[in-house]
Amino acid sequence: MASPPESRPALGLRERKKAKTRAAIQQHALRLFAEQGFYETTVDQIAEAAEISPSTFFRYFATKEAVALSDEYDALLIDAMRAQPPGLTPITAMRAAIADVWGQLDPEDWNQERARHRLIFSVPELRAAMLDELARTIGLIAQVVAEREKLPADDFAIRVLAGALVGALTSTTWDLGTALDKEYFEIADHTLAMLEQGLPFSRRTPPA
Asked: 63 and 84 in contact (C-beta within 8 Å)?
């Protein structure tokens, strides 16, 4: 599991137990989804596999769909952005944050993310729900950029920048959902580098 940025306070025993239970529920859910299908897997089956009650499941995840869509990386990226030196531009800070967080993933983390993304891309309801997740991510990035730039959280330019960051990453990495690996990180970084350079574009002469 990726380690949290150093700026994040260490979790207490209770929080660590909750995080461990949440991770176990998701791991068992993803395994069952892969083995028998998303629609065929019930909350009761996930709870049984995780050795918890269904009511405990719902204390961690509101729905079965939430198990597939949930991850810790948005929060880690926001923390990592906040920890970057104040002189960095927002895009440079995001590139450094991605390197800090994604660079710490071990093979097991990558395998779980591959499974999760493969599931999301294969289930129409989950693909549609990703729009809400993207909107939430834009809001989180806008908030931390506003903090770093000492601007109001509802600043229009900040919102546009946050949308550009998420949109650029989504447009170039969407098709890599089933192939998450080092290439994913390299393409994400290259995408942000292009955005930072003002999206240089050279019009090509159409073939004769």
From this structure: no
Full DSSP string of 75-113 = HHHHHHHHTS-TTS-HHHHHHHHHHHHHTT--HHHHHHH
pLDDT of residue 174: 67
Tell me which residue has tokens 């990703």: 130
Fold of the 64-196 domain: Tetracycline Repressor; domain 2 (1.10.357)
| Average model confidence (pLDDT) across the chain | 86
- Amino acid (1-letter code) at residue 139: G
Helix 124-149 × helix 107-122 angle, to 10°: 120
**23-56, pLDDT tens digit by residue?**
999 999 999 999 999 999 999 999 999 999 999 9
Q: Which of 89, 62, 93 is nearest to 77 (CA)?
A: 93
Burial 113-133 (b: 16+ CB within 10 A, else e): bbbbbbbbeebeebeebbeee
At residue 167, what is the residue type? G
Residues 6+ apart with CB under 8 A from 99: 185, 189
Parse the chain into domains and list their residue ranges: 64-196
Residue 113: per-residue pLDDT: 82
Structure tokens at 184: 């994913």
> For residues 41 and 193, what is the distance between their CA atoms, to the nearest angstrom?
41
